[in-house]
Protein: Nucleoid-associated protein
Organism: Amphritea japonica ATCC BAA-1530
Amino acid sequence: MDLKFLAIRELIKEADDSVATISEKGGPLDVSDPMAQQLFNALVTAYGRRSTLTHGSFNQENSEGYPFISGFENFIKGPVDEGKFLHLCDQALAQLAASLQQPSARSATGGYAIFIYYSSDVFDYLLIALVRDKTGLAFDEELNPTKVIEVDLEKLHQAAKINITTYKEDSDSYLSFIGTRQQGNITHYFSNALGCTDVVPSKKSTSDLIRASEDFCRRYQLQEKQDEIVEDVVSYLSRQREDRQSAYLPDVEKIFDDHLPPEHVEKATGAFGKFANSEDYQVSQEFQPHTSTINAYTQVKTKMDNWQLDFARRSLGHLHTDSEIEFDAQTNSLRINRLSTKVIAQLKEALDIS
């Protein structure tokens, strides 16, 4: 990873206060300083450990109501220098201070806003996080315990990361942030200030979850149960869709935990959520299942000029697998087994067979 710019500013607000102010302290840090590098690595690592990220995008439908969005777009136009970076930091701070003063954030407190512009592999990122102090213990020169104030990087309650490279490529999902609906409005002041929304196309979220399910089975040698597991996942998505409910990643994680063999229980229990929430799949904690994508995994519909087929995907298998419908790849033909008495009678009648 290559750290390009780093700045720290302070937002001052006590719980239940209605006013948030921006301290004059802080500013850019020398990125070659070992302590700046240590802070950068610790913050990126702490963010990467989170398995409750929400993936989304900017609220482009109301971009005028979120000045940070236009500020970010100006920031990435042309070469990026420290002046443009600090100007964006000022814009973000102003929006964070305004959002902290909303009634829904009344009980929230201020903290240290850390802005990081860096590259990793072939991607450029902007990471913005709000961290707070914690009290620790140290020894003085006489080995007497003394209180010290430390920055608590382990508890990232508010943070957002923007993949600048994929944003420029008009990707569906280039943004992740901490905060879910279930936690209430207080956690949303940060993402709202930056114009973040959890709107990711439901088709992408659904297909990415199924893809992650298949890959997780291969990662943990669950290939023999893969069809059964993926079918359970898709069935869960179908039920949520029929009930007009969101799908929740912890629910899917429980499906995997129930299928784990004894030799993988200790290693893989509770692992699917983080696996699917990672940068490779970007499945949010909550999303709307997509009907057509679900049907593509549950139903096979095909037709030719004179006939059509519509059957459950689980009924299909290769030749000699004892599936209800078998496909022979050598002759490119289908064989239908275990016909019901009614179907047999209909076929005999059509062929005038007594």
